[in-house]
Amino acid sequence: MDNLLTATFLGLLEGLTEFIPVSSTGHLLLAGHFLGFHSAGNTFEVVIQLGAIMALFSVYAAKLTQLFLAARHDDGARRAIVSILLAFLPAVGIGLLLHKFIKEVLFETPVLIAVMLILGGFVLLAVDRIAPKQPKHTDALALPFGKSLAIGLCQCLAMVPGVSRSGATIVGALLMGVEKRAAAEFSFLLSMPTMGAAVAYDLWKNREVLDFSAVSDIAVGFAVAFVTAIFVVRWVLNYVGRHGYAVFGWWRIIVGSAALVGLLLVS
């Protein structure tokens, strides 16, 4: 496949999957494996993730500005910021401790990724079915600190590729009585510091082997991921508020099963 076409496809895949509970990392790693695509230091993959993060910041720019301005005089706004930071902390500690193992072992095991996609799909289907009909929490910015921290601990499961960061946080939130739309929105808000820190740390750790020689490919992947992610973020909250998460569970099972079959056939 032509390099620019591959870059466009992977950028589209990143933008489509980063903020829904299907594991963008799992999709990118499996697609790269089957396409024979690899970039030194994962430069391409890291930079197109940055495109998705920037898309989320652009969608939430007004809300975040309002929140931080209100924090000067509003206890509720300050509590919302602290709540998100509490949820972010577990990923910092565990990510720093296990970064090398995650990147060098887990990320290089396509069968594990496919299996986790399938298992995560069944978990998502089950939790979507048993989620309370009358949730206790309907505002993503007003979760109790204890529940925010617990959701942050759930997020750490996503360090295993194929689990899905948004999937882990959403499942954790649903099990703690958070309404489906609010669970997705809290996942979005939490993803900004989490993904921002992860991308920055990846770039720093790989600074000596980063390869920006294929600038056009990286630029195309970044732009496609950015534009696609904007549409996904704007669409997904309304969708899950009306229909829940079952479609994403089935998506995971189908993609994971197809990948597992493909891996077994070529092994």
UniProtKB/TrEMBL annotation:
One of its GO terms (biological process) is cell wall organization. One of its GO terms (cellular component) is plasma membrane. InterPro entries: UppP. Its EC number is 3.6.1.27. Keywords: Antibiotic resistance, Cell membrane, Cell shape, Cell wall biogenesis/degradation, Hydrolase, Membrane, Peptidoglycan synthesis, Transmembrane, Transmembrane helix. The chain crosses the membrane at residues 47-69, 81-99, 105-127, 148-174, 186-204, 216-237, 249-266. It is found in: Cell membrane. One of its GO terms (molecular function) is undecaprenyl-diphosphatase activity. The keyword Protein biosynthesis does not apply. It is a multi-pass membrane protein. Catalyzes the dephosphorylation of undecaprenyl diphosphate (UPP). Confers resistance to bacitracin. Belongs to the UppP family. Bacitracin is thought to be involved in the inhibition of peptidoglycan synthesis by sequestering undecaprenyl diphosphate, thereby reducing the pool of lipid carrier available. PANTHER family: UNDECAPRENYL-DIPHOSPHATASE (PTHR30622). This is Undecaprenyl-diphosphatase.
